[in-house]
């Protein structure tokens, strides 16, 4: 299935493709276009619009598009549910929801500066979400401390 959204992806527009590829449709294809072209191109290409007002896959109340994908596709993986809180905090500027949210926002904004090509940015972002998933699944309780022996 093809999915389409606004160009210059950040939080939800990278997190949702990661979630979709891993838990909904491993063959999914993602397309980025100027925001005013999303719905027209969605019709033309037979793509599902996401993370844009007026799309089914969008924000609802306090929740972001990632939350909607989790609920719509009944994703119950505990690590994904932890990531959902982090993504929601980053995407809605509610850094109080999870301590990782502010860092996720900073990394996402930095990716947007470092990449001009949306698909290249998505590819790098997917790797970052793989790492976030590994942390949430296997390393959440790991701590990093270092004591000086001076």
From TrEMBL:
Taxonomic superkingdom: Bacteria
A Pfam entry, by short name: ChrB_C
Domain ChrB C-terminal: 3-135
InterPro entries: ChrB_C (IPR018634)
Protein name: Chromate resistance protein
